[in-house]
Design the sequence.
């Protein structure tokens, strides 16, 4: 069985389990998942920022105007 099929089966199972919960509990799961997704996105943004900062510090990227960019092409 492929990984994507295994994941689909797992997700389907999780959704079926959640559907068995009360509406209040389903809402709580929804809120928790939304907060986790937001936190995950924040962590991704921070990691991108830190990588870009390191690249700039090491001189791997430059800053300038649009004219500078077109002038270097």
Sequence:
């Amino acid at each position: 069985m492929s990984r994507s099929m295994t994941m689909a089966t797992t997700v389907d199972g999780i959704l079926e389990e959640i559907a068995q919960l009360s509406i209040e509990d389903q809402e709580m799961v929804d809120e928790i998942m939304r907060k986790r997704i937001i936190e995950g996105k924040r962590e991704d943004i921070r990691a991108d920022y830190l990588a870009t900062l390191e690249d700039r510090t090491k001189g791997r990227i430059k800053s300038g105007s649009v004219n500078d960019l077109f002038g270097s092409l």
